[in-house]
Design a protein that fits this description.
By secondary structure, the protein is an all-alpha fold. It has 5 helices and no strands. Helices cover about 75% and strands about 0% of the residues.
Length: about 120
């Protein structure tokens, strides 16, 4: 049975091709995303909702380009903080889910494309 990916690189491949630029973009993603995830988590811990929204905004285009479909709605909800999330009690679960999925995507890309 084949492994189900958390992402789809089709759009990225169509945009930049399958050559060196493709791998450069993946390398940039794997280098910059952990810092953004750390900023997201730190902003949440310190109750800095503007920081949470800023970090989400930084992640939004990456999530779209890599077609991480299960995060597209969630990232848009916290990108518009503090205005949109009706129930702030949802925020910990949303952030935890984003962190889990993004870490899996990072691991899969490093393993399958950059090793």
């Amino acid at each position: 049975m084949s492994e189900v990916k958390n992402f789809d690189l089709g759009y990225l491949s169509e945009s930049v091709g399958d050559d060196e630029d493709f791998y450069k973009m993946l390398a940039i993603f794997t280098e910059s995303t952990p810092k953004i995830l750390s900023e997201l988590n730190e902003s949440y811990i310190t109750n800095d909702m503007r920081g949470v929204a800023d970090s989400a905004h930084k992640l939004k285009s990456t999530i779209d380009i890599l077609r991480i479909n299960e995060l597209q709605d969630q990232i848009r909800r916290i990108d518009r903080l503090p205005h949109v999330i009706e129930n702030k009690n949802e925020l910990p679960q949303i952030i935890s889910h984003i962190m889990d999925v993004m870490h899996r995507v990072l691991w899969e890309i490093r393993r399958d494309y950059l090793s």
